[in-house]
Design goal:
By secondary structure, the protein is of the alpha/beta class. It folds into two domains: 249 residues, Rossmann fold (3-Layer(aba) Sandwich), CATH 3.40.50.970; 34 residues, no CATH class. Helix content is 34%, strand content 16%. The protein contains eleven helices and eight strands. An eight-stranded mixed beta sheet has the order 2-1-3-4-6-5-8-7, sandwiched between helices. Strand 7, helix 8 and strand 8 form a beta-alpha-beta unit. Helix 1 crosses helix 6, helix 3 crosses helix 4 and helix 5 packs antiparallel against helix 8. The longest helix is centred in the N-terminal third of the chain and has 15 residues. It is globular.
Length: 287
């Protein structure tokens, strides 16, 4: 299988600014899917609203474009109906942690087998550059004219605290490392979360390509991602931003915990469940 399998027509209009980190993320995701031999018909890309959320529009596969902040909820529903699909959420830091913060929290707890790729440029890039949940303290915007006054939201630390199945942070400027970590996330069972650091070249002149390169470091090879306490400690570091796979764990997914799947592994949409059988399944759940 070649990467061209996921390519849209050459004349597809891409609505990103020249130099946007989303171009690199798109290339990385296509490469990862190709190397894992995932076919377009086996995949659903889900997004909300925003520049990051446009990514599925530029892949030749199944997509679902939902409401702002509701991408994870839609992905959860798609996976519940048909667990045979590979379901990937692509959306931004605002959509993921602002409007979608509640869904982010509770779907980590439910542990559906989906992959959440958060494009984190620390600003709202579609709606003209106001501060996002991950904007840094003191960041000046047309709305926050005196600078952001709250500490930035830390999605990696939160995901670890809630025991997400897979938690990582990457930098889009390091494409090979990012690709391998995204491949690991796609291959891991359970809620796999990857915070993708990327610049917004138009609205965020502070966190540039150069800034990220100078302010990240990679977790050492000897680091153990099964140690939750150490993972949380690393995730809360402030002097430099650690990147890599922070935490992994193995547990039953939401789909595997459903009584309906314990009795019949076929996806719901393929079943011919009669009323008496449905009643039987409901009784099984109550008991």
């Amino acid at each position: 299988m070649t990467i061209e399998l996921f390519d849209m027509p050459k004349d597809t209009d891409i609505a990103w600014c020249p130099g946007c980190g989303n171009f690199g993320i798109l290339r990385i995701v296509k490469s990862a899917l190709t190397e894992l031999n995932i076919k377009p018909e086996e995949l659903v890309m889900v997004s909300g609203i925003g520049q990051a959320a446009k990514t599925p529009h530029y892949l030749r596969t199944n997509i679902y474009n939902g409401l702002h902040g509701r991408a994870v909820a839609a992905a959860f529903a798609i996976k519940a109906v048909n667990p045979t699909l590979k379901v990937i959420v692509e959306t931004g830091d605002g959509c993921s942690f602002g409007e979608g913060g509640n869904h982010f929290i509770h779907n980590i707890l439910r542990n559906p087998d989906i992959i959440h790729l958060a494009h984190d440029n620390m600003v709202y890039g579609l709606t003209k550059g106001q501060a996002s949940p991950t904007s840094q303290y003191g960041f000046i915007t047309p709305v926050q004219v005196q600078g952001v006054t709250n500490e930035p939201f830390n999605p990696v630390a939160l995901a670890i605290a809630l025991d997400a199945a897979f938690v990582a942070r990457v930098f889009v400027g390091d494409q090979e490392q990012t690709k391998e970590i995204i491949k690991a996330a796609i291959s891991h069972k359970g809620y796999s979360f990857v915070d993708i650091l990327q610049p917004c070249v138009t609205f965020n002149k502070r966190n540039t390509w150069k800034w990220f390169k100078e302010n990240i470091y990679y977790l050492e090879e000897s680091y153990n991602p099964n140690n939750k306490v150490e993972a949380f400690k690393r995730a809360t570091e402030k002097e430099k931003i650690p990147v890599g796979i922070f935490y992994t764990t193995t547990k039953l997914t939401f789909e595997e915990n459903l009584p309906v799947y314990k009795t019949n592994k076929n996806p719901l949409y393929l079943r011919d469940v009669k009323l008496d059988k449905l009643t039987e399944l409901l009784d099984l759940k109550r008991n």
